[in-house]
Amino acid sequence: MTKITAAITAVAGYVPEYVLTNQELEKFVTTTSEWIETRTGIKERRILKGEGLGTSDMCAPAVELLLKKRGIKASEIDLIIVATVTPDFSFPSTSNLICDKIGAKNAWGFDLAGGCSGFIFALTTGAQFIETGKHKKVIVVGGDKMSSIIDYTDRSTCIIFGDGAGAVLLEPNTEGLGIIDSILKTDGSGGKYLNLKAGGSVKPASHETVDSKEHYVFQDGQPVFKRAVIGMAEVSAEIMEKNKLKSEDIAWLVPHQANKRIIDATSDRMGLSSDKVMLNIQKYGNTTGGTIPLCLWDYEKQIKKGDNIIISTFGAGFTWGAVYLKWAYNS
Ligand code: UT7
What is the pLDDT of residue 310? Predict the structure, then answer.
């Protein structure tokens, strides 16, 4: 029997219109545009403005564009998995809301909270349903409205994060293209360095939690930075070694976009020149679940059928990992 792999057959994204520049941030916190750009690589990020809008309002248009590009109906979708740390609500899931918004009447779905590695955790999960033959069309979405949990008086976090969403369609492939391998890791002892302290079952929302700003992202940047550099570089090298891939075999690295210096350390370790590294941190910042599909969307026209791609991420949890895939189409 021919082996079925799960291949990405379309990619789309959505970013809000409002552009928050480094210069504008200089008005909220003690920082400089130059510091932000040299220490992170970020020039600007997008912010979802408007009353009553949440993560699903970015994911739904991304999925609608995805369906249009592939020329399929929402009713054909079997499953939608949404990687997010900023769901519209604790429940119902953002996936359920997206299904309703786009009319995916025959789909089931759920949200997956894997921090900045959420998208590759969801991608690997979605791939299993294709590989087993259970489903024919699975959509994996990564999206976050990070501005909903950012304190714009905290210069260690507000300079990094932005809003955005991206989506990919997974379909069966029998040519040996698609997702070939993944290495996924977690270390919960890292939770203390990057978290949201209140709003969960341990510390439900109260006047006190609001007053002490515990519904905003807390990040101790340096330890996260150090672990991210090691984690992303090592797991990327590990997946190359496991699949007997040399630098010259790799067409693209798709790194999580948290800090340009982390990305550079990863590509250096893999022996890749900068022209093989997807980068959009300068215009979107860190969109958490959104960074990987947004990169694929931006670079789609440059990717060729058969290209070897390594996706590599690190984020809150800690969570990290790498996916090796062979691109399945020319656009
Ligand atoms: O995606 C999820 C995972 N997250 C990450 O991967 C983020 C990892 N961390 C980082 O990217 C970096 O740690 C930050 C960008 C958050 C901070 O950069 P850093 O180079 O690690 O800065 P630092 O915290 O070591 O601070 C260095 C200096 C300090 O001043 P002194 O003590 O040397 O005088 C800070 O007070 O830079 C200062 N500083 C700033 N200055 C201007 C810290 N933040 C800022 C700022 N503007 N926004």
Answer: 98
Ligand 1: which of 225, 260, 264 to mutate, most ligand atoms within 8 Å of CB?
Answer: 225
pLDDT at 297: 98
CATH class label, 5-176: alpha beta
Is 59 considered catalytic here?
Answer: no
Structure confidence at residue 2 (pLDDT)? 84
* Ligand 1 near 116 CB (within 6 A): yes
* 180-326 fold: Peroxisomal Thiolase; Chain A, domain 1 (3.40.47)
292 Cβ below 6 A of ligand 1: no
185 lines ligand 1 (CB under 6 A): no
Interval 222-247: pLDDT, tens: 999 999 999 999 999 999 999 999 99
pLDDT of residue 199: 96
Residues with Cβ within 8 Å of 26's Cβ and at least 6 positions away in sequence, in order, are: 32, 33
Evaluate if pTM is beyond 0.70: yes
> Are the folds of 5-176 and 180-326 the same?
yes
Distance 21 CA to ligand 1 centre (A): 18
Which of 152, 156, 226 for mutating ligand 1's site (highest number of atoms within 8 Å of CB)?
156
- Which among 22, 96, 99, 116 is annotated as catalytic? 116
Domain boundaries, the chain: 5-176, 180-326
State the 10-residue block means of pLDDT for the chain, 331 residues long.
Answer: 93 98 96 97 98 98 98 98 98 98 98 98 98 98 98 96 98 98 98 97 97 97 96 96 98 98 95 97 98 98 98 97 98 91
